[in-house]
Design a protein that fits this description.
By secondary structure, the protein is of the alpha/beta class. The chain has 2 domains: about 15-255, Aspartate Aminotransferase, domain 2 (3-Layer(aba) Sandwich); about 260-385, Aspartate Aminotransferase, domain 1 (Alpha-Beta Complex), CATH 3.90.1150.10. The chain has helices at about 15-20, 60-75, 85-95, 110-125, 135-140, 165-175, 185-190, 225-240, 245-255, 255-275, 295-300, 315-325, 375-385; strands at about 80-85, 100-105, 125-130, 145-155, 180, 200-205, 220, 280-285, 310-315, 330, 340-345, 365-370. Strands 1-7-6-5-4-2-3 form a 7-stranded mixed β-sheet, sandwiched between helices. The protein has a 5-stranded mixed β-sheet with strand order 8-9-12-11-10. Helix 7 (about 185-190) links the parallel strand 5 (about 180) and strand 6 (about 200-205). The protein starts with 14 loop residues before the first helix and ends with a helix. Pyridoxal-5'-phosphate (PLP) binds near residues 113 and 204.
Length: about 400
């Protein structure tokens, strides 16, 4: 976060104002109120090594810098780094690990994160354990002398399990380890993990931050200068950076994050009521309902409960597959977090790579990413599809 940018200061300005202004000063030459797309790959130097802060766009780019400062401000982190995808952000964090190291992963997480940890890092000699992080004592018991970090999502993808960030960070710190939180589902509008003791917060920017299903990206924030320096070295050294146009699109999406999240959450709450009342549904997973096992923790670390909803059908897998293709307003597609509502079958789609592992998900499970369409259209669509099960 730049000390020179008054709009980046969380004590000076509210979330919505920072989402629109942080890191984005008006262009001094033209007065342009939106951040220009600095497509240039290289920047003129007055003498060797004398420049205006930018040399080469893999190393640093003004549009990317604006995005990094804006998102760092929203996460209330001192430092932020943008990446070409959520997975490349995850990869940049995991490069901290060395052969022989071990990490602990929550026992529900995005299938791609599990694949990267179990397959790519597994083959590089880095071991992992999948642990039920709802029990901090289980985490403490699973911590080994070579464990370097614990990785969690909360709420998780796709089971919407809630983990207590503070309790988990405490265990990590008691063991000289790091606590990393993937905050993709909640977004910084609803939850700021660094405030609760996390050392690193990461995002698939592709989801709510971009918000319009038109850009793939990743982000990492931290308050540690050392961690940021390491991430910066990897960002430049490995080069998985987003292009300026993608940074611009993400900045544009972020400006409406708060109102999109509120509207999508309003819609999700209505859908949860419908699902709870429907006889075809055997279980609804949403942290906002009082009987969700993590409801009290969610209340303590989230301002609202978000717009991701998962549910199981009493009639099992075949019925879930059938329902997934029978909605009209909900589009059957992977991904989440955008203005349009999506439905998917995690077991066969986003979490296929976790099949047969401790992270396998129930095959009667469907996941909804609730968007900001008219609530009545979403409710009618789902009601019709469920009535036909
Ligand atoms: N983290 C979570 C929680 C996700 O849901 C995803 C993608 O679905 C990722 C990380 C990976 O992000 P990306 O698809 O932008 O690489």
């Amino acid at each position: 976060m730049s000390d020179l940018d008054p709009f980046a200061n969380p004590e000076g300005f509210g979330f919505e104002t920072r989402a629109i202004r942080a890191g984005q000063p008006h262009d001094p030459q033209t007065g342009a109120v939106t951040m220009p797309i600095h497509q240039s790959t290289t920047f003129a130097q007055e003498a060797v090594g004398e420049h205006k802060g930018f040399e080469y766009s893999r190393t640093g780019n003004p549009t990317r810098r604006a995005l990094e400062e804006c998102l760092a401000s929203l996460e209330e982190g001192r430092f932020g780094r943008s990446f070409a995808s959520g997975m490349s952000a995850t990869d940049a964090i995991l490069r901290y690990l060395r052969p022989g190291d071990h990490l602990i992963l929550g026992d529900d997480a995005y299938g791609g994160t599990f694949r990267l940890i179990s397959r790519v890092y597994g083959e590089a000699g880095i071991d992992y354990s999948a642990v039920d992080l709802t029990d901090p004592e289980a985490l403490a018991a699973a911590w080994q002398p070579n464990t370097k970090l614990v990785w969690l999502e909360t709420p998780t993808n796709p089971l919407l399990t809630v983990f207590d960030i503070r309790a988990i960070a405490d265990v990590a710190h008691a063991n000289d380890g790091l606590c990393v939180v993937d905050n993709t589902f909640a977004t910084p509008y609803l939850q700021q993990p660094l405030r609760h003791g996390a050392d690193i917060v990461t995002h698939s920017v592709t989801k709510y931050l971009g918000g319009h299903s038109d850009v793939v990206g990743g982000f990492v924030a931290t308050n540690s200068e050392d961690i940021d320096a390491r991430l910066g070295f990897i960002q430049n050294g490995a080069g998985a950076v987003p292009g300026p146009m993608d940074c611009f699109l993400t900045l544009r999406g972020i400006k409406t994050l708060a109102i999109r999240m509120d509207r999508a959450t309003d819609n999700a709450e209505k859908i949860v009521e419908l699902l709870q009342a429907h006889p075809a549904v055997s279980r609804v997973r949403y942290p906002g309902v009082a009987d969700h096992p993590g409801h009290e923790i969610a209340k303590s670390q989230m301002s609202r409960f978000g717009a991701m909803v998962s549910f199981e059908l009493a009639a099992g897998k075949a019925a879930a597959m059938e329902l997934a293709k029978s909605t009209t307003v909900f589009t059957l597609a992977e991904s989440l977090g955008a203005v349009e509502s999506l439905i998917e079958h995690p077991g066969a789609m986003t979490h296929l790579s976790a099949a047969g592992s401790p992270l396998e998900v129930p095959d009667s499970l469907l996941r909804l990413s609730v968007g900001i369409e008219s609530a009545s259209d979403l409710l009618n669509d789902l009601q019709t599809a469920l009535d036909a099960v």
